[in-house]
Amino acid sequence: MRLELRGITKRFGSFTANDRIDMVVEPGEIHAILGENGAGKSTLMNTLYGLYTPEEGEIVVDGEPTVFEGPGDAMRAGIGMVHQHFMLVPVFTVAENVVLGQEPVGKGLIDLKRAREIVRETSRMLGFEIDPDALVEDLPVGVQQRVEIVKALSRNAQLLILDEPTAVLTPQETDELIEIMGRLRDAGTSILFITHKLREIRAVADTITIIRLGKVVGTASPQATETELASLMVGRSVSLGVARSEATPGEAVLEVAGLTVRDSHGVPVVDDVTLTVASGEILAVAGVQGNGQTELAEAILGLQKPAAGSILLHGTPLEGKGVRERLDAGLAYVPEDRSTDGVVGEFSIVENLVLDRTGAAPVSRGGALDMRYLRRNATERVAEFDVRTTSVDRAVGTLSGGNQQKVVLARELSRPLSLLVASQPTRGVDVGSIEFLHDRIVSERDKGAAVVIVSTELDEVLALGDRIAVMCGGQLVGIVPGGESRDVLGLMMTGIGPEEARERAAEHHTVLGEADLEAEAAVVDDGVTDAPASDARQEKR
Fold first, then answer.
1. What b/e string do you get for 403-425 counting C-beta neighbours within 10 Å, with b at 16 or more?
2. What is the pLDDT of residue 378?
3. What is the second-level CATH architecture of the domain 241-330+416-496?
4. HSE (CB half, 13 Å, CA atoms) of 419?
5. Residues 103, 104, 108, 112: what is their CA dihedral angle, to the nearest 10 degrees?
6. What pLDDT does residue 535 have?
7. Contact 409, 334 (CB under 8 A)
8. Quick one: CA torsion of 74, 80, 85, 91, rounded to 10 degrees?
9. What is the pLDDT of residue 428?
10. Mean pLDDT per 10-residue segment, the chain (541 residues)
11. For residue 510, what are the CA distances in angstroms to 173, 487, 538?
12. Domain extents for the chain?
């Protein structure tokens, strides 16, 4: 399929999400769309998939202008989409999910035998096996994503949209997905790959289109460096590294011992976790989303009541202390879900910047808020954290997600701290602002605070962590030094202990190294000497 977008414009009221976007996706091409959060990538894909109707422009499929009035039209035209948040029914089997809405029928009943055959046939075409009778809720996240891909391809999708497909995958699952994408491309399927992860773009893309503030600002080669791609995304030079000195840990600030937190069904979501964080160090907690990291952070703040274990701050038990008391003791908290737990959308920026400090000077005097101080504070914080707004009186709920996150971080990092607990601190924040926020977090460490970072982004974990704790299934798999390899961390995220993970990673690299040597020898035999082996393999493929 050859897809062409001509002048696509999509508005929401006075806001233009997509502004006259032109783009061409050739048959059998992996076309990556790169842009900051809020740049308009997902809006463009939802328009292409028939979920939105553009105000201007046209979609051209194989030379024919086409109008999609809904996803059904897009699917009939040969376009499939795997959403960032999977659209599967957990209590249905794989086969039932794959044929849902297009069930094969025999003798007036759903033909489940044929449904199973569809799953097996499509899976084999992709080079993997999926049990058609497995319940989706029992499958690992990586396999659920494969089910989504099988579902799209079983409906004869010739162009597949993958919207942030690696957001919930381990590094190993990400590598497997990249291999699958390569096989699909080789079979003639076009892929639109939406992501903000520069490493993945360079690994898999044939063509890269960069979108900034709803407009196409250029294209790039997959051979471009990550720094070059980041600069194109934000329109200025960006440093992707985090400048930080070696940590000099002091006394223990946070001590967690035997901590267990149970969900509403009594199932442990944090299971006997023990760890210590000292002043002047950052402990980064890694793991696939949903493995107890969120509940651990919430228990430290007092939002979750432990079923067992203890939490000490500077040697003082926090049991029985409420959230306000913990904040007053020097704990700062950046929640995972900013819109629900981090800000009050109807309140102004001025008000949100002092939500947890309204009872004491300088925020209030004589029982009344000091509005002069509040406005001065807001003006300074907005400038310091580059919050994009027309006024400090603007309701936070009208800001973009990234700017809401900056308000939360500005509030939490603008007072003396002894312990900072931050869940997904840069989620939804553009590359340029991530650079600034990472520097601020390191600055808090250097001033003597203990820092706990919970992040599903391995790049962030590796950039910030002096030590890295990995969680899986609510348990602490292990704590390793900050310089640990991505492969080892990825294996630990599946529940494998540190020593075994290192052994497996070493074996994998040995095999991979032999394969690379063979490929380089083949390249020399072919007389190709100027290109790196990876480029030559790409050409041979």
1. bbbbbbbbbbbbeebbbbbbbbb
2. 92
3. 3-Layer(aba) Sandwich (3.40)
4. 25
5. -90
6. 42
7. yes
8. 100
9. 66
10. 96 92 95 85 91 95 93 92 84 94 83 92 84 90 85 90 79 83 91 86 92 92 87 77 86 97 93 97 92 94 95 95 92 88 92 82 78 90 88 88 85 90 83 81 94 91 95 96 92 94 84 49 39 37 38
11. 20, 13, 22
12. 3-234, 241-330+416-496, 338-415, 503-540
| Ordered DSSP codes for 241-281 | S---PPP---SEEEEEEEEEEE-TTS-EEEEEEEEEEETTE
Integer Cα distance of 142 and 243 in angstroms: 34
pLDDT at 509: 67
- Write down the CATH number for the domain with range 3-234: 3.40.50.300
Tokens of residue 41, six digits:
């990538």
Nearest to 214 by CA among 404, 413, 401, 36: 36
For the full predicted model, state whether its pTM sits above 0.85: no
Number of H helices, E strands in the chain: 18, 24
DSSP calls for 141-210:
HHHHHHHHHHHHHTTT-SEEEEESTTTT--HHHHHHHHHHHHHHHHTT-EEEEEES-HHHHHHH-SEEEE
Side chain identity at residue 22, one-letter code: D
Dig out the tokens for 408 from the structure.
């939360």
The token pair that represents 141 in the structure block = 């996240």
